[in-house]
């Protein structure tokens, strides 16, 4: 049985990879021939210093898609992430029993 967080995460991953196959023209694929994908367990993303460190690491490594686990982000902290991340993202905020996930791209 999946939690709502897990279902949202799986849907986001599935949609992303499905879009890669649907847009299989050579011009679309040439944009992604060097696509770098990363996955990080950040064990909390509420702290401004940690958030800046994580975002800097993603940019430094040139990750086109990054999956974050254990974000511990709530709706208040999500606004901070929105301000500091220049790209697109999908967040599934955690509950008191799950830590939350995010996809940054």
Tell me what you see in this structure:
It is a single chain. By secondary structure, the protein is of the alpha+beta class. 47% of the residues lie in helices and 19% in strands. The chain has helices at residues 4-22, 26-31, 48-61, 75-84, and strands spanning 37-41, 65-69, 89-93, 100-104. The longest helix is centred in the first third of the chain and has 19 residues, at 4-22. The radius of gyration is 14 Å and the shape is globular. 23% of the residues are buried.
Give the arrangement of secondary structure elements:
Blueprint: H1 4-22, H2 26-31, E1 37-41, H3 48-61, E2 65-69, H4 75-84, E3 89-93, E4 100-104
Parallel strand pairs: 1-2
Antiparallel strand pairs: 2-4, 3-4
DSSP helical segment count: 4
Fraction of helical residues:
40-55%
| Count of strand segments | 4
State the low-pLDDT regions, or none: none
Separation of termini?
28 Å
Average of pLDDT: 78
Shape: globular
**Helix- and strand-based class?**
alpha+beta
Major β-sheet strand ordering: 1-2-4-3
Oligomer: single chain
Radius of gyration: 14 Å
Order of helices and strands: HHEHEHEE
